DNA sequence: TTATCAAATAAGAATTATTCTTATTTAACA
DNA sequence: TGTTAAATAAGAATAATTCTTATTTGATAA
């Protein structure tokens, strides 16, 4: 991912382009899992010792506000940030506490059909969060 | 719900029967929503001023351990406790932040079929958490 | 019933993720 | 290049939860 690409992503979303935002955006996209703010902070710390944890929090949150990334709450009440913004479910392993993405068209269709099938009256669904909890085999 | 009934519930689950556990179990079942530990604490406080918040936390957690109740994390990272232990989904209203139970046999069947239909290889699903996020109509 | 003892509780200190505050710096733009 | 609103660093503040320790209590057996 080039600097130019990231810069465009950020400015296109209406945010000022700053060094901190570039570094944090890049770190989040390089993370293979769903890092916490603190994990992002740790990832960038050595190369960018002057970026503060507060800035990481604030920056990630402004990325969420503008729709660049998603966030969700994990089982332990810690916010996790997700660079992939299209709808997907999560697999949570109770043993290792890993959280993995799970994307499946059939499941999406099934859920979509269920919702449009008038089953949820008095409620307008905007998004669906599915977490499969269990164990890796 | 009689005292005797609650007492049996608690002792059957392998826990000592105490006044505090009785009060907390009762309060949780009388709550119409999914209270936080603090809300349970507030509910019982006036009638039981000597029960401490720490005890509420510990007691709710031992109920979870023994399977008497369930807990889940809400959008704000606060634990919520749920007296109803059979599988169900939640409706989360983004406007009012209310969390309601949603139980639907068809949905349960659909999800069960999806899981047994080999779609999640390398992962053994033990439970599924579905949260519909949106707005009340 | 009473003594015993592991388990439960009260009280409050400690922890930890997150938010807030304020002074300083910086990016964007005229 | 100067101006200004927005962004940042640093660290204090907050709030949910857990931990610690001394005290109390329920269950069991003598």
TrEMBL record, chains A, B:
Keyword Lipid metabolism on entry: no
Pfam families hit by this protein: FUR (PF01475)
Known cofactor(s): Zn(2+); Mn(2+); Fe(2+)
GO BP terms, alphabetized: negative regulation of DNA-templated transcription; regulation of secondary metabolite biosynthetic process
UniProt binding sites for Zn(2+): 93
Cofactor note: Binds 1 zinc ion per subunit.
Keywords: DNA-binding, Iron, Metal-binding, Repressor, Transcription, Transcription regulation, Zinc
GO molecular function: DNA-binding transcription factor activity; transcription cis-regulatory region binding; zinc ion binding
Residues annotated for Fe cation binding in this entry: 108
Transmembrane intervals: none
Keyword Cell membrane: no
Entry-linked InterPro entries: FUR, Fur_C, WH-like_DNA-bd_sf, WH_DNA-bd_sf
Similarity annotation: Belongs to the Fur family.
Name by which UniProt lists this protein: Fur family peroxide stress response transcriptional regulator
Organism: Mongoliibacter ruber
